[in-house]
């Protein structure tokens, strides 16, 4: 299934990322990177930034989590949703890609306070009166 994508301004998309980061239900993936400028090459980093998160709607990741839950998490036996953030600072645009579509969005909205409201702002193109 193709990831469901939401496009908006950097501030609105950052609010969705902040909602995830305010919990203990995620790990930051290894895909987080600053990409090289496609025209100028490796010596010229672009203003594009990509962040990848694995979000666990039903599991809090802590140092003192129960042993059984930690083993399940390490073995990949817990519910996991992949969320990708792409920021383009040159144009003040950003995108969110959520793998597994509407069902994953429902799970994230249920598990993460503020996620649904922040995603709704991105989905509607920003709050009314937003000039950005």
Number of helical segments with 4 or more residues: 4
Percentage of residues in strands: 25-35%
Count the E strands: 6
Which spans of ≥5 residues are poorly predicted at pLDDT below 50? 127-132
Rg: 16 Å
Tell me the number of structural domains.
1
What does the model show?
The protein has 132 residues and is of the alpha+beta class. It has one domain. 31% of the residues lie in helices and 33% in strands. Strands 1, 2, 3, 4, 5 and 6 form a six-stranded antiparallel sheet that branches. Helix 1 packs antiparallel against helix 4.
Throw out a few tags for this protein.
single chain, about 130 residues, alpha+beta, 4 helices, about 35% strand
Q: How is the secondary structure organized here?
A:
Blueprint: E1 4-9, H1 10-21, E2 26-28, E3 33-37, E4 41-55, H2 67-75, E5 81-88, E6 93-98, H3 101-111, H4 115-123
Antiparallel strand pairs: 1-6, 2-4, 3-4, 4-5, 5-6
Question: How would you summarize what this structure contains?
Answer:
Helices cover 31% and strands 33% of the residues. It has 132 residues and is α+β, with helices and mostly antiparallel strands.
């Amino acid at each position: 299934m193709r990831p469901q994508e939401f496009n908006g301004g950097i501030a609105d998309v950052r609010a969705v990322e902040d909602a995830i980061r305010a919990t203990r239900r995620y790990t930051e993936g290894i895909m987080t990177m600053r990409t090289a400028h496609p025209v100028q090459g490796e010596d010229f980093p672009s203003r594009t930034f990509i962040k990848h998160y694995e979000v666990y709607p039903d599991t809090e990741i802590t140092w003192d989590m129960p042993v059984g839950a930690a083993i399940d998490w390490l073995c990949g036996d817990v519910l996991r949703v992949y969320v990708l953030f792409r920021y383009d600072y040159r144009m003040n645009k950003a995108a969110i890609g959520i793998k597994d579509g509407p069902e994953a969005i429902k799970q994230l909205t249920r598990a993460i306070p503020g996620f649904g409201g922040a995603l709704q702002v991105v989905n509607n193109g920003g709050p009314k009166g937003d000039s950005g």
